[in-house]
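To fix ideas, we close by showing one paired sequence and structure record:
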Amino acid sequence: MTDLPARLEKLLSSRNPAVKPEWSAVPAAVLIPLIRTETEWSVLYTRRTDSVETHRGQVSFPGGRIEAGETPVQAALREAEEELAIMPKDVVVLGQLDSLLTVTQYEVTPVVATLPWPYPLSPHPLEVAAVFHVPLPWLADPENLEEKLRQPMADGPATPVYYFRSFQGEMIWGATARITLDLLDLLRLRQGNKKERPRGRS
């Protein structure tokens, strides 16, 4: 293979560099339902039960694994219907945020959508312990956000983990907080308070 360097140069020059994780992440999608109350826009969250397979008792968005043949939008809508009885025909999908990798080895694609409000939600009793919504202005207030450092499992720098202050007894943190911050940054609601956040795992 005397032409190996030339062949490699040609192959490498035609590629777009990308980040490749050391292990395969499970593709997943979540729905970020935006609702309009009488006074303002809010984000709808769920709290998972203690009987689900992963992220027990944590605040999250409706969502789960992307099944074979599904797009992230289809998966997010299916999971929202299964968890909260949100009918896909009632949802207006606006687009997708950047995907992120979690420490639980999921690659999560957030799908942003609007949901008419009030809406007859019917939480799945085995999956959803609570449903609540938080106003965007509250989420955008820097006084309601705290950053803590997580020590790495191996050698390396500590990574930031984001926590919102308790809202009506509910704690938004970790990947759900990061997705929320990405939405706020996209809307420029945190302008002047935005910090550069790594796109690693949370």
Helices lie at 4-13, 72-84, 136-140, 174-186. The radius of gyration is 19 Å. DSSP finds four helices and ten strands in the chain.
